[in-house]
Amino acid sequence: MSAVSPAASAVAIDDVVPADVGLRRSKDCVARAAPANRGRSRARVRRLKDHLVAYGLLSPAIAVFTVFFYLPAAYLLYISFFHWGILTSATQYVGLENFRRLFAQPLFWHSLAITGYYTAVMIPATVLLALGVALVLREAVTARRGGVWRAAVFLPHVTPVVATSIIWVWIFNPQFGLANFVLTSLHLPALGWLDTTQWALPAVMIDGLWHSLGLYVIIFLAGLANVPRDLVEVARLDGARRSRIFRRIIWPLLSPTTFFIVILATVNSWQAFSQIYTMTGGPHGGAGGPAFSTTTDALLVYQTAFTFDHFSLAAAMAFVLFFIILALTVIQKVIANKVVFYR
Q1: Do 180 and 47 lie in a common domain?
Q2: Which of the residues in the chain have pLDDT under 50?
Q3: pLDDT tens, residue by residue, 195-226
Q4: Separation between Cα atoms, residue 130 and residue 65, nearest integer Å
Q5: Are 266 and 146 in the same domain?
Q6: Do 64 and 161 fall into the same domain?
Q7: In sequence order, what DSSP letters do the residues of 18-85 get, joined into one string?
Q8: The 3-state secondary structure of 21-38, one letter per residue
Q9: Is the N end or the C end of the chain the one with fewer CB atoms within 10 Å?
Q10: Are 47 and 152 part of one and the same domain?
């Protein structure tokens, strides 16, 4: 076998593989990569445009929340650390003194207890009654003028709270009110209602429940509309009873709607003010009576600010109320992650 010189090998390799093949391969790789890079660039530009359009559409709502909620809330937190009055420009920094004074007041803890009791009663009552009415409207009267009945149920929610609360004051009048007339007609003893510490808060609850029930009924009806009728029909064909269908099919599928209603009812109950202020003598003084039996935290915030002219203490109280509602919402969210079924 004859030896081949390096020069001859180089010549042979150059004859077989051209010298610019590496350059052509690099150009081919760049050419193939260019469309992919252009596609990624177009996707980034498209996402940027989508983000700009989304933020542009959200900007009015963001502006409204910023001007009417976030900035006032920040200023409210600011004045809670000062001794501040609406009629005086001078302020004095007191740090956490307002919060210490607040937690030392027995009336504040009493108002929290009243608000907690009010909320604990209103949430299950709201859910059970709203769900029951929604099921009746869905099953019994949907085929016959269902829209009229739905409008009738929803109508109390759109009526002015103050006007309807005044009507309820007359209904609960101990001498000639409709409530005592019904009780005496049933041979039951008449009640003092708004004049007694025992029945004043239940009377306010009845008004609040009557006024807000229609909203929750409509929400439950929307949730029931999303329950597949095929599942219900199949269960009926298999011989399942209505109670079992409700427990096994309807109630699990309504869990997201129920969770949403519980959140709304919690927030609305902890912020209950208008009907309590009107029904317990707010326009004439003495709101929250008798004997502070209906003094909720929201009402006490109003009285501290506008009756006792202590805005700094009211600001501290408002922030405590905010954090209580936030904590309850977080707790409900944690529980909901375990029991709410999203299909």
Answers
A1: no
A2: 1-17, 19, 21, 23, 30
A3: 888 999 999 999 999 999 999 999 999 888 88
A4: 30
A5: yes
A6: no
A7: -TTHHHHHHHHHHHHHHHHHHHHHHHHHHHHHHHHHHHHHHHHHHHHHIIIIIHHHHHHHHHTTEE--
A8: HHHHHHHHHHHHHHHHHH
A9: N
A10: no
